């Protein structure tokens, strides 16, 4: 693709990077490469830099652009809404706000058998904050939560308190309400001598042991009360490296939660909207959450809209009255019109069928790649949420340096396909920052998946030579 460098207002990359270095806060960006990459255009599964080089994007803005760049149907919905009702204060109502809430609530009723309501906000972390208010309100002010090691829920103060990474809290004072972090069954890095299922059961049993006596620290058997109000879960860990637990893990965990009256909050911000082949990733595990938090792909990245669904007892107007939370831009009509179109489109295009098929094809390619590169210690996937763990040549020791080199080479745009230059956009995740977390467009073709595997092969070969 040709980028018009003579267009009015065009500023070249060198000037933009100089201005960014001088005038932008680095606190709201992540500079994975030096210099940071500048992109000019996006289309389908590709982004294009200033030179017009295509980059196959295998992370799609952290799974926010599930339906591809420049999706015509969604772009048209946005354009139509701009001409009808582009903005309205959030104390007033409009049609798509009500339609979207109804659509999500009826979908939850069908799947979970529960009445519930939908509450909107403007970002994933903000929706997590709203869920914390709902949980604390429902538990008479209890402010302590359970969460997982490796879990990520955002970087606001409340969300940081239930995110396991200390580095997000370190510079901001003491977090007296920090969650208790429990082990997440990480199949590839399970204890020696245990099967994945045995490790999963062990994690559940370790959690259940907290309730054996009052001296285990969280339970008062005389009043049948737990000190902790809810367990925040990512059904598949996102930033933690797309770790997929054994199928029965959440059923075992939910039995313990239900026994002791602890709410389950499913964080679907990264895995929602058919990333795993289901609208909500928790659907893959056969349990019913009390609250579902969502964001990102709700608008395909075109509008900052997020929200949550909660069962009726937790969120009805008697217990959670008007003004309990608020944002000026929540439930804005551009976002809700997009969200409504996303859900309609998802069911009409049957992503529940197509995503697992494409995911199986991608996973097969990754397994073939693993046979040719002993540095790929583990591959796994559920739908189009896939992982490849990069290790040393022993196939187990984390190799962050090699993956960093891969990312740099991919963003340099010097790979080759059909005699032309091409780049590859990867995301780094995992507990040791050595995991390629793959979240391609749900509309990626089988041919593009084959191209992705070929480019990963080329990329890994180059990176190993460069690191030797």
Automatic annotation (TrEMBL):
<dbReference type="InterPro" id="IPR015424">
    <property type="entry name" value="PyrdxlP-dep_Trfase"/>
</dbReference>
<dbReference type="GO" id="GO:0008483">
    <property type="term" value="F:transaminase activity"/>
</dbReference>
<dbReference type="InterPro" id="IPR049704">
    <property type="entry name" value="Aminotrans_3_PPA_site"/>
</dbReference>
<dbReference type="InterPro" id="IPR005814">
    <property type="entry name" value="Aminotrans_3"/>
</dbReference>
<keyword id="KW-0808">Transferase</keyword>
<keyword id="KW-0663">Pyridoxal phosphate</keyword>
<dbReference type="Pfam" id="PF00202">
    <property type="entry name" value="Aminotran_3"/>
</dbReference>
<dbReference type="InterPro" id="IPR015421">
    <property type="entry name" value="PyrdxlP-dep_Trfase_major"/>
</dbReference>
<protein>
    <submittedName>
        <fullName>4-aminobutyrate aminotransferase</fullName>
    </submittedName>
</protein>
<keyword id="KW-0032">Aminotransferase</keyword>
<dbReference type="InterPro" id="IPR015422">
    <property type="entry name" value="PyrdxlP-dep_Trfase_small"/>
</dbReference>
<dbReference type="GO" id="GO:0030170">
    <property type="term" value="F:pyridoxal phosphate binding"/>
</dbReference>
<comment type="similarity">
    <text>Belongs to the class-III pyridoxal-phosphate-dependent aminotransferase family.</text>
</comment>
<dbReference type="InterPro" id="IPR050103">
    <property type="entry name" value="Class-III_PLP-dep_AT"/>
</dbReference>
<dbReference type="GO" id="GO:0042802">
    <property type="term" value="F:identical protein binding"/>
</dbReference>
